[in-house]
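Researcher: Going back to the complex we discussed earlier. I've cleaned up the inputs and rechecked each line, so this should be the final set. Can you rerun the prediction on the complete assembly and write out the structure?
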Amino acid sequence: MPDLPLLRAESMPPMGEGAQFAASSAASAVCGPSVASVGDYMALMKPRVMSLVVFTALVSVMIAPGHVHPVIGFTALLCIAVGAGAAGALNMWYDADIDALMSRTSSRPIPRGRIAAGEALAFGIVLAAFAVGVLGVLVNWLAAALLAFTIFFYVAVYTAWLKRSTPHNIVIGGAAGSLPPVIGWAAARGSLDGRALALFLIVFLWQVPHFLSIAWIYRDQYAGWAAVTGGISVEPCLLFLIIFFWTPPHFWALSLVRTEDYARARIPMLPVVAGAEETRRQIMRYSIVLVPIGAAPWLLGYAQAVYGLTAVVAGTLMVMFAWRVRRNRHGACAARAAHHLFGFSILYLFVLFAVLLIDARVGG
Amino acid sequence: MDEKPGRIVLSEEQKRSRRARSIAIAIALGALVILFYVVTLVKGPAVLNRPL
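Model: Rerun complete. Updated structure for the full complex:
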């Protein structure tokens, strides 16, 4: 992980300020009976984020070894979608204060006064409880526990802690977005070997290069345990890694064109803390690392050459877009390059997972 | 009967939104019931036999 300066604690908003704002806005911004529409509640669930979460989980459910009944698979995806929506609602509840300050987020339901913060909090908690409970009862409790951990990580670790305290926020917080394929895999397979889980947690905490090296060294044991126990193997970890490394260039491209917004809201995004130049350098590094990570399912023999070729070509294009961001530093060209990288990064993830799914269906 | 003092009277927009929200909740609960029913059919007796 790059060595970046952390913000001083005194320069940041105190922990819980978002929640305090949320509590006060409940009494001030939305008084009396609610006028919130169903669409407002849908917006609270961040449907665009949810769609990518569901898609990556769908691919994982489909490529996991063994047979999953379509109804059970559908139930798992539904619960993952609702869980993602719950996390989004809780995120909007906590971040209502900074959402109001940024043009990109000022039209969200809470800052716009359509939904009271307390309603969003209750909505998020109820959805999270339903999603985890239903997934546990109807699918399995391993997947439910992973979903609960993901929601907790996104809301408590990323939103309430990391986002306002360190420029590493989206790097570490990206783990929450990387977990849906793992949940999907667990939902499809149904059990988890304790040793594999322990290793998974170790490598997760050990961070990026360590994760790769350990996964490589112990790949046979992972695969062996999975074959014997039906637990999580290397494949969902690779899916996790792809999204994990994809997240920084994706969000930093966005933050480059929204730097003033983030600065106004005092969110220590990388361009605010370390400057645009350092952000462009980091985007380039992560994009380069993403190329072999994206191709890893093919390199390790879990996917066929078509996937490998797609991953290499898409990864190269991603690096080219990152290079354009690096080269174009001023004016409209810089903003356009960042927009293009942001847009392509979404296409990149979609294409990779789609080809992985087709590869598994056709080849497997 | 006379209206109680201080009682909240909903505007037309508030009534419409409340009705829409109530319908959405009813649909969600109905879908949940159907989902549990279908999963019970799919799993059969095994629905009660799962590892914790």
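Model: Worth noting: Residues 12-43 of chain B form the longest helix (32 residues).
Researcher: Good, that matches what I expected from the previous run.
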